[in-house]
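Students often ask why we bother predicting the structure of a whole assembly rather than each chain alone. The short answer is interfaces. A chain on its own may look different once its partners are present, and contacts between molecules only exist in the joint model. In this exercise we take two input lines together and write out one structure for the complete complex. Read the inputs first and try to guess which parts will touch.
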Amino acid sequence: MRVVEKRQLLSAEEISRTLNRLAHEIVEKSGGAHHVALIGVRRRGVPLSQRLAVAIKGFAQIDVPVGTLDITLYRDDLSTIGPQPVVQSTNIDFAVDNRDLVIVDDVLYTGRTIRAAMNGLFDLGRPKRVRLLVLVDRGHRELPIEATFIGQTIQTSDTEIVEVRLTEIDGEERVMLVDRVS
Amino acid sequence: MLERLPHLLGIESLSREQIEFFLDQAKPFQEFQLYPLKKLATLRGKTVALAFFEPSTRTRISFTTAASRLGADTMALQAEASSLKKGESLMDTVRTLEAMKPDAIVMRHSSSGAPHFVAERLEIPVLNAGDGTHEHPTQALLDALTIRDRAGRLESLNVTILGDILHSRVARSNIHLLGKFGARITLCGPSMWVPREVEGLAPQVRRTFSVDRALEGADVVMTLRVQTERIHEPALAPDEYIAGYQLTPERLRRAKPDALVMHPGPMIRGLEIDPAVADGPQSCVLEQVTNGLAVRMALLYHLVGGPPADAPHPAKD
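Now the answer. The structure tokens for the assembled complex follow.
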């Protein structure tokens, strides 16, 4: 199987502008964001959540706590795939009880990752509210899950892949639509 | 990502890379021990059989808890109550357990090599929880995790092991493991317990019968449990062992100031270790217990998780 790039969805500059808008939306829709905490889903949700926190600090002077969540142990496909995926650390060094949490991920697709993330979060306590922020919503949901904060919504076919590349992880910065060709 | 291990039978056959992989994988499970809700559904629907043909408290509880926190069920066979007492053969007992369709067997046996014998004949993973005087791989892994956390590294440490080396599977697994990381290992105890052969277990192993010399410059001091059935007159009286080999605060001063003190348990205070050392700031005894859970969860996750060996392959997308 080969993959071919079909088109670029977001440039580095567009990613930056989108995140800035999303950071403003979080503050607007949270009554000031004083109880908000961001939870970045490994891997690419992590740098996104950190950048959002920096942006919020920049214009609203609010320190928003940021945690990292690894969903591996909560996946629903572990009994069908093999070998076992590597488990990473979850680093959430604040109490989630009564927090206004925003889960941050790069792409919203089937919704299964977010279901797993919510299970993981509820093992840590009882948040007051949980919302979802994604850079790209590409449709094809398999669960009743929607995002509150969306960078860009795009139509995709199910053979296509949305590839998010971030400087911190990939050494480049852009979002592409690629297709699988067999 | 490493190729999946079919069984965990011993440390000797593991590569340094495999050992590091499991230590890294234990990390998230260490953090998990601090969660308010310690119950995952990761291995839901899986069953782990615990076949302890030799009495065990802590290792059995640790494996049971590890399986349970991952969401697996356990079925336990206990030496005292089992049909072994009625003369059933090892293979018949194991086959009976296998017929109840567990997804893995955790096994302890008084004969060295028993888990290997069973592993060759079963389709499911076998985890060695101690075989005779041979190996106790999960103990060595949890010890390594404890050392790496406290000392910041595993490479090139001076490690002293005190006690009955000859009969200790804990010592043997630890020598294999630490030897792969370039440890300089000093074995010390009464001469009948530290035979010349143990020097061949790893590249840099030396023997000494003097505790003071053994402890000089040590980064890690491991004391072993003295099996009371093995100390008796005339060969060795308990008083002689205490006088010659007990780890006391005075003796420990010969080791590096921040040397770690470890004990696999159960610990007999006043025999192999002075209570002041056992409870002192250098002691890692309780961390070893907590790390045991993390290591066993990581191992169960990797050996027991995923589709069973005979499952039909899921359709590829």
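Check your guess against this: The interface with chain A takes residues 1, 3-4, 25, 27-29, 31, 35-37, 39-42, 45, 298, 301-302, 305-307, 314 of chain B (CB under 8 Å).
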